[in-house]
Amino acid sequence: MLQGKTALVTGSTSGIGLGMALALAKQGAKVMLNGFGDVDGAIAQVRATGAEVAYHGADMSKPAEIEAMMRECSAKLGGPDILVNNAGIQHVATVEDFPVERWDAIIAINLSSAFHTMRLALPAMKQRGWGRVINIASAHGLVASAGKSAYVAAKHGIVGLTKASALECATSGVTVNAICPGWVLTPLVQKQIDARAAAAGIPVAEAERALLGEKQPSLRFTTPEQLAELAVFLCSAAAGNVLGVAWAMDGGWTAQ
Ligand code: NAD
Known about the structure:
Elements: E1 6-9, H1 15-26, E2 30-34, H2 39-47, E3 53-56, H3 63-77, E4 82-85, H4 100-128, E5 131-136, H5 149-168, E6 174-181, H6 187-200, H7 204-215, H8 224-235, E7 246-249
Parallel strand pairs: 1-2, 1-4, 2-3, 4-5, 5-6, 6-7
Helix pairs in contact: 1-2, 1-8, 3-4, 4-5, 6-7
Bound molecules: nicotinamide-adenine-dinucleotide.
């Protein structure tokens, strides 16, 4: 379905981003990966689909590095025709205890990076008359939790950015949408489960059940593969008139 298209997925060395990259590659897209950690493992997994793969290690808190990544994507693979803004971090503390440096990092990585990739990718998408921007927001883009002020602010912000830019793109053949996952068992959430287990002195499995029980009525994690199928749908012709939505896949979290 996506032969001849190039997808750039930020933060695609693990978790949801890697799931997105794999699913888009399986649909025939060329893929540019980004992120830290097990870079070689991620490249090997995506390459095993038969897709053409490139990687750029831009730190998504640094606009100049984002610009370099966008230039390299166009030069090496063309596009991007599909842009998945996924890189994200978390920090949990009350507002009064929130380290200023963590606030700035979360806003930069979880929100401003999407502004930078979009401002650089949208002109060529509009010129070609086709493009897909998929912003990975969160249930926390729709509702809040205590202790997550920076994350909730950034995720509400990215939902707003999605809506505004969707309107700007409305007649161009480019769509901009957000996906709002509930709990997904990735390294980002595993850290929160481990912290919860340590704080309460309970086994990790019990902390996992408590985390789900508190927010997610299905009591099941959403998987990166399920989210990636939604991204593939948003890239399809059937989704050509889906514009500016914040699509929850959260086991009922935000229906409550
Ligand atoms: P993860 O920690 O598994 O992956 C995060 C990715 O971002 C990694 O590839 C990491 O290397 C990359 N990254 C982090 N900082 C970066 C930086 N400065 N520059 C470039 N890359 C950077 O986390 P995940 O759970 O897969 O999260 C992916 C996205 O999904 C995030 O935006 C997160 O907020 C969102 N999300 C996750 C959940 C969940 O339950 N896991 C729920 C809702 C939304």
